[in-house]
Structures are given as C-alpha cells and as structure tokens.
Write a structure and sequence with these properties.
single chain, 306 residues, alpha/beta, Rossmann fold
C-alpha cells in the first residue's frame, strides 16, 4: 500500500461518516407517491423527465448542511463525510446528484442499488450513523451494529444556524434497554428501585453509543467554549434514576453538554427550546410528540419495538 493510500485510510478511520438516503435528504414525496401508485417504470420516466428540476430540501437537509460545514475549519483533512445510499438507479439518481451540486453539498460518494436494500454498503463505507426514510433498511443497519434511525416527516427549524445541535433519548438509544425492560415488565416503581439499588453499575451501551463517542471525538477538535457542536440527553428519567446515567457517561469518557431529566413530561417543547437539529428516540409516542417541534428520527430498537 502506498503512503498516500495509507494516509487516506488513516483519515477515513478518524472521520465521522454519516450515510443518508435520498428521501431523507430531499423532498421526494411526489415521485415516491407516483412510484407507489403506478410502479417503477412511471417513476423512472418521471425522474428522467425532471432530472434538471432541483429537488426541495428534505427533513435531514439542514442537519447534513451543518455537518458538512464542520469541515470548513480543516478543509485539507475533512472531519465529516456524508455518503448517499439510495435505492434509485444510476439513471434516476442523476436528479439527486444534480440537486446535491446545486446546493453546493460536498457529497461525492454514493451507492445506487436499483431497488435493492442499501444496508449492505454501510460496513464498507465505515458508517457511524445511517439516516433513512425506509424503516426496513434502518432495521437492517441496527442489526449490523450501526446507529440508525428512520427520519419522520417533521418540523425542521434553524434556531442556531452556526451550531449543530443533536439530542438523544437515553434508554434503548444511548444506553441498552435493560432498565426500560424492568419498567415495562414490572412497573415504574420497580424501575426506580432498580436504578437506586444499582446506581454504581454502569449501563450497557445502546445502538447510538458508538455514534455518540465519534461525535464526542469530533467535539474535542474544537475549543469547548466555542464549539460548533452541542449535545443533549433528553430522557423521561428523573431523580433518583439520574445518577446511574451521569456516572455511566463519566465512565465512558463522553461529554453531554445538556442533560434534561423530564420525569415523563412531553419532550417536544424542551427539544424546541434546546433547538435540536435532530432528536433520536426509540419510543413511538415520544417521536410523534417530538416531530411536531424538531426533526426526529425513530430508532426501532429495544423492548418498546419488540
């Protein structure tokens, strides 16, 4: 292997890689409805006929733009890469790349699978986070051990245009779902008793532990007092169940900028107040509330999605 190839491999190892589907990045609702109604050939003809018509931004577009903006401080060694994984063909995908070029998004790597699942390319691309409008592809990615979420139709604002803000639920997202299983199987009182008795036992890692760690490494490249990234843990837990969470993150060596212990309160207004560019949660009830306020990804993992 040449020195340049070795250096490229080293840079890729350190880079935060986010894979995104075309329907999460752009608003493809009209051609997708045509596909659902009339089939593949009608969809193909429509996309080719409109391949020079620029697509409107989708729910995850602002997030992607902010992620790529993090490279401005070190353009020679990009810290973030966004990869397009699309079930379009190369033919129908041309409109998508034309739109990427129009918006000036630095996305150069892609896989177009002509209707086949895209999840098999997640590992070769060394993806840290996969975002898609297709729940089946998300489920496959999670089974492969990659953080993944189904992007839902959501409200997406730009409260903090110069700062990327990402919020996470705790149990079954950042952490494993063992405590949530106690709550669902034995009740809330048993959950709080369990967390109080086991406060000094670290929680296991959930599907987003690796992505959170990669995001933390990216944060460390910037001054803490002027970071372009801010994170929040937004959980239904409250005292005394908070202690185990804090000590677990401390043991992992991961910094969370804000921790909101809501004790069952509706998360939506708090996420809007935080200004989240995206929020990840395993609970269908929580994501239905959250998506009225911020861009939201459903993580179909854990006991709540059994």
């Amino acid at each position: 292997m040449s020195g340049n190839a070795q250096r490229e491999l080293s840079v890729d190892d350190e880079r935060l890689v986010v894979a995104i589907s075309s329907r999460a990045l752009f608003n493809l609702s009209e051609p997708h409805e045509l596909y659902e109604r009339e089939g593949l050939e009608a969809y193909r003809a429509y996309q080719i006929a409109h391949e020079n018509d620029i697509l409107e931004p989708g729910v995850a577009f602002p997030l992607v733009r902010k992620l790529l903006a993090l490279n401005a401080s070190a353009p020679e060694v990009p810290r973030v890469e966004v990869v397009l994984l699309s079930r379009n063909s190369g033919d129908t995908g041309l409109r998508i790349f034309n739109s990427i070029q129009h918006y000036g998004l630095d996305i150069t790597r892609a896989a177009f699978t002509s209707g086949e699942p895209t999840s098999q390319y997640i590992t070769p691309f060394r993806v840290d986070l996969f975002l898609s409008a297709n729940a089946e592809n998300v489920g496959r990615a999670l089974k492969a051990g990659v953080a993944a979420a189904t992007i839902l139709p959501s409200r997406a604002g730009a409260v903090h245009p110069q700062q990327l803000r990402i919020a996470f639920d705790g149990d079954a997202v950042v952490f494993g779902d063992e405590s949530e299983r106690v709550s669902q199987e034995q009740g809330v009182d048993a959950f709080y008793r369990n967390e109080s008795e086991r406060w000094n036992e670290p929680l296991s890692g959930g599907p987003f532990r690796g992505f959170l760690a990669a995001l933390h490494r990216l944060q460390a490249a910037f001054p803490a007092e002027d970071s372009p990234i801010r994170t929040a843990l937004v959980t239904a837990r409250s005292a005394p169940a908070h202690k185990r969470v804090i000590l677990t993150l401390r043991q992992w060596g991961v910094r969370i900028d804000e921790a909101l212990f809501l004790g069952g309160r509706d998360k939506g207004p708090f996420l809007e107040a935080f200004g989240a560019d995206i929020f990840f949660d395993d609970s269908r009830i929580n994501v239905e509330s959250a998506r009225k306020h911020v861009a939201t990804g459903h993580v179909p993992h854990g006991v709540a999605n059994s």
